[in-house]
Amino acid sequence: LSYFPFGAFSVDAKVANLSATTDGGALPLITDDATDSSPNLLGKRIASVKMKLKSSGFALSANWAKTIARSFTGYAGLGTALHFVNADIPAYRVISISADVQYIADGVIESKTLFVPFARFGTEWRPQSRFGISLFGNLALTAPSWEVNQHLVGKTSLYPNLKPRTVISDTSIPMFTLNVPRYSLEFALSFYF
User: Which of 34, 103, 123, 184 would bridge with 97, disulfide CB 3.0–4.6 Å?
Assistant: First the structure.
């Protein structure tokens, strides 16, 4: 959405939503060697953790416009974007057959707000007075990142009736790091009213 309050000055606003799920399989995870002849148990991880990542946000920018040709307008501006990101990682078990142990990883639900100021430059071609095609390049002035870890909360024997559970403290597994890109391109079709 663009608004031209006066002259060659415009204010742009946009919203975005993103949802992604990583590939995953049945639990538990087999992580190391075994004496069984089954190919699923020979040092291979036969399943991966299914993680969900959701993001919503908005960006607001102020732009200066200048006509560079009959149907072309150039833009330069500054703005800021806020991204509200949520990560959802289920609890799961990691089984080591050769060591006769299984680790229990706690579920994770975390949220993070990423603040990204940016500069933008672009051009718009208007083949008709009420229709435009634009291309912008955005430069993030800061590029924040977010690392999500999952904590191991305990371990137990594969045969829990024979051995008690042991609590593990200060042990975490890095699951993923979300990096905001420094550069991005933006393509838009515009309708003027």
Answer: 34
